[in-house]
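During the reporting period, our protein records have gained a structure token line. One record among many is quoted in full directly below:
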Amino acid sequence: MRMRWENLPQPLRADMETYLGAVVKAESRAIGPARCVTARLLHESGAGTWLKACPADHPAAWLYERERQAGRILPIVVPAPRMPWSSADHGWIALAHTYLDGSPADLSPGSPDVPEVLATVARLGDLLTPCPPGVPPLSGYITRMLAKAYAMLDDDNALPKGDRAMYRAALDGLDVAGLEGDTMLHYEMHTGAFRMVGRSVFVLDWGFACQGAAWFDAVMFTPWLISAGHTPQQAENSLMDMREWRSAPGDLVTGVAALWTLFRLYKAVYGPESARAGYQSEARAGYTWLKYRLA
């Protein structure tokens, strides 16, 4: 069931309007989990808000709460939409960000957005080191991804025998301790996480924010460049000016490439049916990257 602004508890709406001003128009969007609300709100002041809200008992509530906590501690210098109001009251987790009237970044080869996005990814390492307090460690996400990766590898019918050997060899070089660090990471730098407003880049969706090695976000961004049409060589070459990328140990990069790909293969089999084709496409990009690194 898709929820709308009007379906939120009246006390929750009143709390938000008391702080941000009366809502004169609400445009609900059919994105996000079922039973949750995503809406663009227009206030009587003329200001716009991007609202995300989730029932506190929803399976995705932890992700909304993580994003709410990240929004409260992100340094003001980070190019991200501000979160002037949030709430964990009335049985809901709700976040109101300043609405950015822009467009998703185009990461395809030759796009003028690519250098701007790369420069933004590079800046984040400096802006978010040291890590603000209260951010969960990257190792928690990696442990869960590894469980799904090995579930695929242990299934004799899930992957060709040669691919299983390739993935296992790559994962053998992934020392989780080597991913530790003192940088706040975005973790999920997919194409939709970057919004262009003029020539400025803003980074959205900080629900997976975690603490780890400064180079990790640059590495995790690589397969998204490949998904957008870059060859693995082009993708890696485009990152060479980035200090964080150059500091990444090669065996850990290869291990992350294998882990990223196996996780998407797992989701392509066991994830929501409507999203499986997308995960499969992403896994093909990751597979191409891994084969390039092992060549």
User: Anything to note?
Assistant: The beta strands are 23-28, 37-43, 48-55, 85-87, 92-98, 103-104, 183-185, 194-197, 200-203, 210-212. The chain has a mean pLDDT of 96. Residues 191 and 224 are 7 Å apart (CA to CA).
